Amino acid sequence: xxxxxxxxxxxxxxxxxxxxxxxxxxxxxxxxxxxxxxxxxxxxxxxxxxxxxxxxxxxxxxxxxxxxxxxxxxxxxxxxxxxxxxxxxxxxxxxxxxxxxxxxxxxxxxxxxxxxxxxxxxxxxxxxxxxxxxxxxxxxxxxxxxxxxxxxxxxxxxxxxxxxxxxxxxxxxxxxxxxxxxxxxxxxxxxxxxxxxxxxxxxxxxxxxxxxxxxxxxxxxxxxxxxxxxxxxxxxxxxxxxxxxxxxxxxxxxxxxxxxxxxxxxxxxxxxxxxxxxxxxxxxxxxxxxxxxxxxxxxxxxxxxxxxxxxxxxxxxxxxxxxxxxxxxxxxxxxxxxxxxxxxxxxxxxxxxxxxxxxxxxxxxxxxxxxxxxxxxxxxxxxxxxxxxxxxxxxxxxxxxxxxxxxxxxxxxxxxxxxxxxxxxxxxxxxxxxxxxxxxxxxxxxxxxxxxxxxxxxxxxxxxxxxxxxxxxxxxxxxxxxxxxxxxxxxxxxxxxxxxxxxxxxxxxxxxxxxxxxxxxxxxxxxxxxxxxxxxxxxxxxxxxxxxxxxxxxxxxxxxxxxxxxxxxxxxxxxxxxxxxxxxxxxxxxxxxxxxxxxxxxxxxxxxxxxxxxxxxxxxxxxxxxxxxxxxxxxxxxxxxxxxxxxxxxxxxxxxxxxxxxxxxxxxxxxxxxxxxxxxxxxxxxxxxxxxxxxxxxxxxxxxxxxxxxxxxxxxxxxxxxxxxxxxxxxxxxxxxxxxxxxxxxx
Length: 747
What we know:
Residues 318-722 form the Outer membrane protein beta-barrel domain. The chain is 3% helix and 68% strand. The N and C termini lie close together (4 Å). The chain has one domain (69-463, 473-734): TonB-dependent receptor, beta-barrel domain (Maltoporin, Chain A, Beta Barrel), CATH 2.40.170. The protein has a 22-stranded antiparallel barrel. Strands 1, 2, 3, 4, 41 and 42 form a six-stranded mixed beta sheet that branches. The chain has a six-stranded mixed beta sheet with strand order 5-6-11-12-9-10, with no helix packed on it. It is globular and about 95 Å long. By secondary structure, the protein is mostly beta strands. A hairpin with a 2-residue loop joins strand 30 (570-594) and strand 31 (597-611).
């Protein structure tokens, strides 16, 4: 709920309203003296509101309930605060239950499409893989307003992200309001997890403050059962158990804005999180050959510590009352990770007889840092018939990875290869964009934009003395055509071109030893992959949405399998090895005709094929589908008891070279509010039937593998939260014809 006050001339405005039905109510001493419904789809002039009253008007209130999930021209919006299933979780928990979003093997993607990038408050987070997953786990779901899945990002957004962007929008404080809260969460899966949090927000006169801190502790567990077939004479079966204890994770967020004048505002946002993890991994590998059978037991343990720092300074200058403005953003991001792992390995002939001469031990020490500096200047101007957006951006990223591999025990000379490597990576990005939006006719509307990005990178490896440079200049167009036949029927056609640049880890040539016969490395010669996205969407009353989409990703990055020179083991190396093509049909419907029930149903049916020229890669294709249903039930008239029931089901699908089996998820959440909605209690159960288990198959010419992975998504989570605060600190009052209005709020 936001609030505003009248200007001296009696004018008022509400901004950032989502499309939907709203009711304006004017109350005098608790009695409604004016009420009217409005169907808001775009900017609207309410005209002059006349109220025939003699006494002081106490309040004008605009009320309306946002849908749990909203569909817009270029994005889907999930209103997190409306779902009981997200209370007490983190950003990754929310993404796992969102329609059209797939979270597998620490990768985020759009169902039927490819990978995407993550933003927080419209600002790109330069992380991937485990680093990104851990960062998302540090963001409390209670601090998230909504999450946007932008499948067709306009020109003002970075071109990074093959199939789009995920934008996490954090909550802001309400006008003339202060609020503080404290709470805690207990989560029981195979092991326990708990956190405590507190926060404070204030929006008074010219100052806005947002702050919160969170503490986390707990244990996570993953179990993997994997089989390898190398050629026809050797079979490897492995069992993997990983246990990690999260200790002392701290996440702090502080933001402040100051409205210097009616036109100019200045503010900052800072986020800091730190955590320590103690890893323990058990790996049993069964090698079956025609002449022998060997069991190799590998135990890996060690600490890992991570620190993330993010600072943003921003300002805005309003050019007029129509929404024209200029925005300046300066950003700094740092990721610092340190690891120290020891690996022990023992061999057993015929799976039972211990062979001491084959003992092997090694140590891996890594210190990985990312620094990112960026600045952007964006302008937006509104004219009578057209809206223009334009801007520039510059970004500099520097990474260093000091890695050491030391053999502690080995009787095999080929394994006695102590290695130290210092991997340095630098990149610079410059961008300029412009876009315009306007009406062609009364029913036709067009938006077109063009973004130019120039990119330079430099890689230096101390170990190999290799230096690699790469530079490019590419155009990324975006076209959006909209036809509104009437207020109930809307047709959209969109085309966007995107890019996916290699992550820092996939560029590092250093060979990481997972076990005695399992090695993985990056590739400094990787190139970006490019994607063309075409979508046609139809919307009926903004409740029923039908979409047809096609996308093509060229030179997508995946890991290819190779044999070393002596053919003693295989190793994985990152390559531009896949060209992906996909065509699909998406259907989603919001059912909200019953006051106490809101249901969202989503169905994606698609055909996908992957091709490659890399030797050993087998092309694949598949028809697949995903189904989601999310039910929100209000169990009492005051809507203080909210029950959420969700179900997800996915047919087998491909992610690059990997075939993922079908899986499903059933979850239930209930949220209750007491003491004038100040006390919140929530209970959530996820993966109740333990069906969120994926079997992953890889099929290369030199080997085949089947991998069953279960990361224990089954859990019960209990959350308690208490809100303190005052809905109005002090409201500015203005006289208008012997009438006074105050506390104008939107819900």
